[in-house]
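for the writeup, i need someone to sanity check this before i put it in the appendix. the sequnce is what the collaborator sent (i think, or maybe the updated version? ugh). structure was predicted straight from it, no edits. if anything looks off just tell me and ill rerun, i have time this weekend
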Amino acid sequence: MKMPELLAPVGSMEHLRIAINAGASSVYLSGKNYGARKFAENFTLDEIHEAVKLSHLHNVRVYVTVNTLIRQSELKSVLNYLNELYAIGVDAVLIQDLGLIELINKYIPKLKIHASTQLTCENQRKIDYLESKNVKRVVLPREMRKEEIENLKTNMELEIFAHGALCYSYSGQCLMSSFKGGRSGNRGTCAQPCRQLYKLHNRKDYYLSPKDLCLYDELKEISKLNIKCIKIEGRMRSKEYLAVVISEYRKALNKLKSNKTSKSENLNLVFNRGFTKGQFAHSYQRSIRPGHLGLKIGKVIGVENSQIAIKINDNISTIPQKGDGLLFIKKSNDYGMEISQNPTITTLNHFNKNKFKQIKDLTRPNKVLIIKKVRQNKKNRFNLENSDVYLTKRNSLSKLVKEIENKKSSFIKSKLILTFSLKNKYPHLKGRLTLANHKEITSEVTGSVKFETPLKRNVTGETIKKQLSKLDNYPFQITQINMNYDGSLFIPIKEINKIRRELLNSLEEEIHNLYENKKEKINYKQSQIIRTHEISLSYYTNNLDDLELIDGVKRVYLEIPPKSSINYMVTFLKKALEITYTKDYELIWKWPDIAHDDLIKSLSKVKGILNKMGYPLKIMSNDFKAEYGPYSMNITNTQTINSLNDYELITLSPELRKKDYEDIIKDCEDNSKIELLVQGPIELMKTRYGFKEKIDNANLTDNQNNHYPIKYSLTGEELIIFNSKDLSLIDEIEYLASIGYVNFSIDGRFKNKDYIKMIDLYKDALNANVKNKKILRNITKGNY
């Protein structure tokens, strides 16, 4: 049984100290830029340096998130920033951008790379690619199931999220905030539109807001897997959340070493939207409210004479007290209050007999909590009868947090051996410190005041040993003190204290020096530029009938309709190839953007069958083993384009602005290798969580009455939520062609045959001769 590393989120220096004291093995934090939590307090470079020093002193590793997509104009500055992090001695950087991985390998090869969950690495093919790129660890998607993780084969370390908020969409595959409000999750500014109410089939609910992840009860199962690290989410959460969650998981992991299991109600008392084990255990529930829910303790069984009687669930051991906060929920309504007076705890039997006798044994079943009702706001007509009751605030937790804040400890202490001797009658102290990574540091100091023959009394060896045992809050453990002194001489005790402090300071400095590095010399250069002027159009479809009608394009990307078997896929593609045999365009098979290994096996089998039948097909896929790359690869700079040299053509991210398109084409080595989506619906979310409700031809509707179509993926397991408006760059295409873009695509999936007219419309636009703009309805330029 292997105990995983416990990785804590850190948004400030105060949070860092709490994480260390609470028992974190490692922490992750961000600078002021390039991190996926732009609105956290975050750290300056000087603060990161201090954080690294403090953490390493406590044997805690520091990972810095540089996990946003990098714009072309940022490449040089982010590379210099990474060089600063390398010099500071961070243990690794978390990266989303593929181009950044390429730059680190080229210019700062000793800097360890961890692949962010934003890279959506859900299958073995992606794992293999990242391993070939010198990535040391991959943070798996939260949507991975236990058996899928178990089947992965890699020398990279695997990290999973174990606790905290869940996104409805696969991380890195969500454009909802970007297109709905101009704030990109891939750029660290997500506005969380998933936490809002939406309407489906005329019923409002938090359809896109999952409960929070909690794998606390799965720690034993996790320890059996090849998982190196469990990650706690929450860089923007409170210090109470951090202290409680990290300390509870640390205690549980420590107990697990002795094969003991743990139970925690404290986890529910800090921010949560209710808990789920998520896809790890094939479960999913949506939250019932966007804010904190708390610990469900029971149900209201009576409201009378300004008193509320709550039947406490028998499995609950945390009993509310004066000053604690309660939340009453019934259907979609809720009401919160604080307990103003000491409550009475009685039995259900006593309550039924109208006797409110206080009981002493709080472990007995059938308890009833009786509290004084706080006067409700006159506008709030919430009926408390039969409502579910949640404990949302626990005053006594603040004491626990204070204890952790003042603890000044660490999960693993360095082992220190001291050797005291005399050197020409001067006190001499040598220290050998063994760190958690098994590296050894030695240092020695000699005092400036000699030992003398005592006039009155001598200083014994035991006295010196006692002084040397004082560690001045250093997180070391003295395992041995060797004394080469007979105890017959005298020296002021302050001189012993002085050399002890000097040695400890020296050892601390040596720890810092062990991790710090010299900056690498970076000479960032662009390669030679090649240009083509031949303009071409591509068209996406998932309809065989369209293939007969499509004309005037160079490529057609064909996606197989949802819920298809292997036999159906073979028949569908065979028929498609027969239809297009005499066509002038090339047919390319588009694989789903999310493809777990079971699906990859099926797709590969279909491809193999077609090859044997003499029907070879090129593939569009984001798994690094295809000829064409979809926009789900999140390409935002030329370094990423260059790194994917096996691809013939790659579609740029639709999150880019006009300025970004200009910067990329100016520096792009080969303009024939990139394509822009200029027309069609944008996939805002790809999810594995689904809906309980039927969603065939359904739309989600937000509070502005925008309608977001929902479609099944190929397997029917994942869902895709499309934007309410089609992207349309019809007014920009002539300009884009003039600056050097030559490949443009139109997405006609899930559209009727009339959408094919867009091909002629865009051909006319490229010739500055648009005739029929009336077919363009409900459109947006998106981020452009």
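The first strand starts at residue 5 and ends at 9. The CA atoms of residues 433 and 441 lie 5 Å apart.
thx in advance!!
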